[in-house]
Amino acid sequence: MNINRVFENFFYLALVGFSFGTCINYLFYEYPYLHLIIHNTFSATNREFFFQINIAFTVSAFFLGMILYGRWRWKRFSSKKSQVLWQRMIYFIRPAGLFFLFPIFCWKEVLPNKPIFFLLLGSVLGLLFVHWFFVALKQLYCFFPTLKNKQFTLLSKPISFFILGGMISFYIIYVSFYTLQHHYSLGTSAFDLGLVENLFWNSIHGHFMESSLLEGGANLLGFHTSFVYILLMPIYYFFPKTETLLIAQSFLIGLAALPLFLIASRLLQNNRQALLFPFFYLIHPAVGGVNFYDFHELSFAPLIFFSVFYCWLTKRYKSFFLFLILLLSIKESLSIIIFLFGFYLLLSRSPKLGIILIIFGVSSYFFLQKLVIPYFSEGKYSQVWYFNWYYQQLLPEQEGPFGLIKSIVNNPVYTLNYFLSEKKILYLLQIFLPLCFLCFTQIRGILLLFYGLLVSLSASRDPLYQLGFQYAFDLIPYAFIATLMEVPRISSKNFFNFSRYQILLLMFLYSCLISYHYGMFYPREHFQGGFRRIDFIYSEKEKNNYEEMLAFLHLIPSTASVTASESLVPHLSHRRDVQTLRYAPYGKDYYLIFRSEAKEKQYQELHQKVFLELEYTLIRESSQILLYCKKDIHH
Asked: What Å distances lie between residue 91 and 69, 87, 465, 504, CA to CA?
């Protein structure tokens, strides 16, 4: 046996011993050991103790290997066959040398301290572990030849759909339960849950797509062309409650796993592998974050885009164009996605359909932006101001979308540095690491992601590049499709020296890593929905606060206009006129506010006649909430 190979094998044995020593430290001294890993500050006695354990196991494994190897060489194991057996044993136990890293990555306080470093380290070590693991499997087949010939039966469609139905049902029930609990904990907000419900309530009462929470009680179509809301209005008509929207959103996002599975099953021709992709989608922290952040039109995007893609894949063109219209009805910006999808089809050997989509995307963009939005806004509102606000850093002269292009062309170095800020790199890792960045391996995948990447990387406002906001759905559906189109290209033998099974195992490990630290299932320490960290415990205090708030709501007539604190608005938005304390014009019938806000100077000046009880009277108060009513109404 080559002397270099001998020392390499001894190194692997020492690494396995070190790994076991570290695991022993973690098992019996979890907190002090991990505190040592993060900060490298601990008592000299404990540092010495941990050092001795690690060295003891490392040296023991090393010398055990030397003794075994020497004994085998001295006796009858000096033949070539014995050397092969020795090498196979080393390869078989080698993955255990990385076991010491798993407790570190699973400790919930490690990764958030230095997220980019640990995610990059985890990705590299994941590649190494998967490679070693599959080499170890080959050795297992050598020890037990019958395993190699064992055939795994493919999952039948009924069983696959049963498993898929279980995943989707669990997701919908789980998320619906906790989003409702979050709502009852006063975790939802006027923007946008209160706004959307007020819009629904006004629409079914004769004021189509209007909301008093928009400037001047404007029509939403003057800001965003979200005609897709019409699909839910019949349901809301029969169940006019906030809970209806929250459950419907969970249903829409969860049900998107069905067309995603159908796409994966058709492309991969393997139901076992296809089931992994709905699993990756449902546990992705970005998906859960959108679900927990109020209610937004982009929640329709995954379900509808996956349906569009499946219809194209199966050549069901009537359904394809129907879902394409629904996709466009979500928001005016989806016309850009349709435009980019047209180029995607051009590169996917569907040139005629690609050209049609390019023309349709361009024409629909100008139709919505230049005709529909100005018509409903009556020329009062401009989206340029919002664009300048969201992308302020790259628009020093407030020039709108064209100014962004100028900044990119004129100052590419500054732009690249701005794109690759620490927060944005972390966001890209959180979004794409579970998919092994496969969506970037071909130009057509990058085309699908171009708009979402530009929105996220150009933004000056944190919500556009942080988990927990609806803007993640500018990337997630297209990332999954681009990834799925690349997986079939991975042959059973080689793709950058990785097989398809290795890639899928990597996706599984990375998805579990990201979900564990940022997701909504376990341990849920850093899961965020919108601007809030989600607390999954409904305390007795929160329950009492909710019941107390309901007592206040019973005193407000359903026809009265109300000004309220932002987290109280979603609980009384099913009325014609409701507004937030921050933006309300003076003169609403009732004021329902938190006591703490009544003490803030900005609100005292804005609503002086309310708080000084010049024209209003305080009709009920508690330790947290105040309810004022106009004196002429109260009397």
From this structure: 15, 6, 42, 22
